[in-house]
């Protein structure tokens, strides 16, 4: 019957049954839903609205929109995610869509594209969740691509380019090899030794007196400092030469810290040997001392070798709003309590509160519970004001701590999940390439060899087809898969 008749017996081709009054049944993953044409036609470009008007077009029109159709029940069948569908149909009743908790945002976006519902109907809170998931997938794709770039060797590249890549991987990626890990440990030790020498060099018993009676660092400590600076200089120059993007390398925050840690040594050395001829010796010594203080910048080099410090830095960057609230609370409290303290202490003849700006120092050390005791109230009202001020200070400091800790934990866990996901994608790519090789894909291997690759594992055309969330950035082709198919 389906082959002989292109129209359905229950459809009135003269249009006596209007689409607005039509009732259709949609079966999505075993869940039946009944819709009326007047509701669906509010959004005529959606797939459900097209179902209302497709009956007169025959089987070809119907099966281009659904997986199966029962003409007796007038029921359309779809092999899609029923949970996502229940959220999507809210657009016909409420004009907006909310994504339920537990549904993958990327899969939900694919479901919306299948039902031809525009993303503008998705609520803002759900859009933010979707954007966050997209950023995670982009980060995973970036990590996978970096690993593939490290593993792949392009035969068409010059020997200098290959050497640059090897040096860059040797210095920037400690996990790439055992010698790279050794270099990373050595760099960490040099930073530690340099910081210890800077601190020990200020101990008077370990300093020596020059011919003019001025104290200076011990020659042994100075030699150790010179060796450390030599290591830092060699490391920075090699990284600069081997970096793929020189401008981005020079403007990176950690590389600016490296320059600030190295530059004072050479500037002070230049001033010591040449500055005396241009200015007075005392001015040269003062300039050298000021530059030597800048050596404390090298302690920030530890962040390059510590994922914990990097996570803390990111958490603080993401917590600017909470830190701003903390500073605002403290600023308001400092101004109010310092003014009250100054006013209440004026009646005492031996008051220590000479002015409101001077009282700011007392308010700061009181609200932060430091309490040096150099300025303190002597009247009863002043002491009561002090008690209220440090109680308010404790509350003001404690309020934003929890969001900052949450940001730290969230970012730390996210980095671990992304690292695991990147390794999982690589394993799937290796598995797919092994299956393709076992199937005898000789032509692919020949194409890859002409492209200068070592094997199918390093090809950018390898697609991760078994993962639940396909990374589109690693493939030129677009895969359309339902959540049900992904979870099978």
From TrEMBL:
<dbReference type="GO" id="GO:0008076">
    <property type="term" value="C:voltage-gated potassium channel complex"/>
</dbReference>
<keyword id="KW-1133">Transmembrane helix</keyword>
<dbReference type="InterPro" id="IPR011333">
    <property type="entry name" value="SKP1/BTB/POZ_sf"/>
</dbReference>
<feature type="domain" description="Ion transport">
    <location>
        <begin position="181"/>
        <end position="415"/>
    </location>
</feature>
<dbReference type="InterPro" id="IPR005821">
    <property type="entry name" value="Ion_trans_dom"/>
</dbReference>
<feature type="domain" description="Potassium channel tetramerisation-type BTB">
    <location>
        <begin position="24"/>
        <end position="125"/>
    </location>
</feature>
<keyword id="KW-0851">Voltage-gated channel</keyword>
<protein>
    <recommendedName>
        <fullName>Voltage-gated potassium channel regulatory subunit KCNF1</fullName>
    </recommendedName>
</protein>
<comment type="subunit">
    <text>Heterotetramer with KCNB1 or KCNB2.</text>
</comment>
<comment type="function">
    <text>Regulatory alpha-subunit of the voltage-gated potassium (Kv) channel which, when coassembled with KCNB1 or KCNB2, can modulate their expression and their gating kinetics by acting on deactivation upon repolarization and inactivation during maintained depolarization. Accelerates inactivation but has relatively little effect on deactivation. Coexpression with KCNB1 or KCNB2 markedly slows inactivation.</text>
</comment>
<keyword id="KW-0406">Ion transport</keyword>
<dbReference type="GO" id="GO:0001508">
    <property type="term" value="P:action potential"/>
</dbReference>
<dbReference type="InterPro" id="IPR028325">
    <property type="entry name" value="VG_K_chnl"/>
</dbReference>
<feature type="transmembrane region" description="Helical">
    <location>
        <begin position="384"/>
        <end position="405"/>
    </location>
</feature>
<dbReference type="InterPro" id="IPR003971">
    <property type="entry name" value="K_chnl_volt-dep_Kv5/Kv9"/>
</dbReference>
<dbReference type="Pfam" id="PF02214">
    <property type="entry name" value="BTB_2"/>
</dbReference>
<keyword id="KW-0812">Transmembrane</keyword>
<dbReference type="InterPro" id="IPR003968">
    <property type="entry name" value="K_chnl_volt-dep_Kv"/>
</dbReference>
<comment type="similarity">
    <text>Belongs to the potassium channel family. F (TC 1.A.1.2) subfamily. Kv5.1/KCNF1 sub-subfamily.</text>
</comment>
<keyword id="KW-0175">Coiled coil</keyword>
<keyword id="KW-0407">Ion channel</keyword>
<feature type="transmembrane region" description="Helical">
    <location>
        <begin position="323"/>
        <end position="340"/>
    </location>
</feature>
<keyword id="KW-0633">Potassium transport</keyword>
<dbReference type="Pfam" id="PF00520">
    <property type="entry name" value="Ion_trans"/>
</dbReference>
<dbReference type="InterPro" id="IPR027359">
    <property type="entry name" value="Volt_channel_dom_sf"/>
</dbReference>
<dbReference type="InterPro" id="IPR003131">
    <property type="entry name" value="T1-type_BTB"/>
</dbReference>
<keyword id="KW-0813">Transport</keyword>
<dbReference type="GO" id="GO:0051260">
    <property type="term" value="P:protein homooligomerization"/>
</dbReference>
<feature type="coiled-coil region">
    <location>
        <begin position="414"/>
        <end position="451"/>
    </location>
</feature>
<keyword id="KW-0631">Potassium channel</keyword>
<feature type="transmembrane region" description="Helical">
    <location>
        <begin position="247"/>
        <end position="269"/>
    </location>
</feature>
<feature type="transmembrane region" description="Helical">
    <location>
        <begin position="182"/>
        <end position="203"/>
    </location>
</feature>
<dbReference type="GO" id="GO:0005249">
    <property type="term" value="F:voltage-gated potassium channel activity"/>
</dbReference>
<feature type="compositionally biased region" description="Basic and acidic residues">
    <location>
        <begin position="7"/>
        <end position="20"/>
    </location>
</feature>
<feature type="region of interest" description="Disordered">
    <location>
        <begin position="1"/>
        <end position="20"/>
    </location>
</feature>
<keyword id="KW-0630">Potassium</keyword>
<dbReference type="InterPro" id="IPR048010">
    <property type="entry name" value="KCNF1-like_BTB_POZ"/>
</dbReference>
<keyword id="KW-1003">Cell membrane</keyword>
<keyword id="KW-0472">Membrane</keyword>
């Amino acid at each position: 019957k389906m082959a002989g008749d292109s129209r359905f017996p229950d459809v009135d081709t003269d249009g006596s049954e209007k689409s607005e009054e039509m009732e259709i049944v949609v079966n999505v993953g075993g869940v039946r839903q009944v819709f009326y044409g007047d509701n669906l036609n509010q959004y005529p470009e959606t797939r459900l609205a097209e179902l209302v008007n497709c009956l007169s077009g025959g089987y070809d029109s119907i099966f281009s929109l659904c997986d199966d159709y029962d003409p007796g029940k007038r029921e359309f069948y779809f092999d899609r995610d029923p949970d996502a569908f229940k959220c999507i149909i809210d657009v016909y009743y409420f004009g907006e869509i909310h994504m339920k908790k537990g549904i993958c945002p990327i899969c939900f976006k694919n479901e919306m594209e299948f039902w031809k519902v525009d993303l503008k109907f998705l609520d803002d809170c759900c859009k933010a969740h979707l954007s966050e998931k997209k950023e995670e997938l982009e980060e995973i794709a970036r990590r996978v691509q970096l690993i593939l770039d490290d593993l792949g060797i392009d035969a068409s590249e010059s020997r200098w380019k290959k050497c640059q890549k090897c040096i860059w991987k040797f210095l920037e990626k400690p996990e790439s090899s055992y010698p790279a890990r050794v270099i990373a440990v050595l760099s960490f030790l040099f930073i530690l030794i340099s910081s210890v020498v800077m601190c020990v060099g200020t101990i008077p018993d370990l300093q020596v007196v020059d011919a003019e009676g001025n104290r200076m660092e011990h020659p042994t400590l100075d030699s150790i400092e010179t060796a450390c600076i030599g290591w830092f200089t060699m490391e920075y120059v090699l990284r600069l030469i081997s970096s793929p993007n020189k401008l981005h390398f020079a403007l990176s925050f950690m590389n600016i810290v490296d320059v600030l840690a190295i530059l004072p040594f050479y500037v002070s050395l230049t001033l010591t040997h040449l500055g005396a001829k241009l200015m007075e010796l005392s001015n040269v010594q003062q300039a050298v001392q000021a530059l030597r203080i800048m050596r404390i910048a090298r302690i920030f080099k530890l962040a390059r070798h510590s994922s914990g410090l990097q996570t803390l830095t990111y958490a603080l960057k993401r917590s600017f709003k909470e830190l701003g609230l903390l500073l605002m609370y403290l600023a308001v409290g400092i101004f109010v309590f310092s003014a009250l303290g100054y006013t209440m202490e004026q009646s005492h003849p031996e008051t220590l509160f000479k002015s409101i700006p001077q009282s700011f120092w007392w308010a700061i050390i009181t609200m932060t519970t430091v309490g040096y005791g150099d300025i303190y109230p002597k009247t009863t009202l002043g002491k009561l004001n002090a008690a209220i001020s440090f109680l308010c200070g404790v509350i003001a400091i404690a309020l934003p701590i929890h969001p900052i800790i949450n940001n730290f934990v969230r970012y730390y866990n996210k980095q671990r999940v992304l690292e695991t996901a990147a390794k999982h994608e690589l394993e799937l790519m290796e598995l797919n390439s092994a299956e393709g090789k076992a199937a005898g894909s000789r032509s692919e291997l020949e194409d890859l060899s002409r492209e200068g690759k070592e094997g199918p594992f390093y090809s950018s055309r390898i697609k991760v087809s078994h993962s639940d969330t396909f990374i589109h950035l690693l493939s030129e082709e677009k895969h359309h898969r339902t959540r049900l198919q992904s979870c099978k």
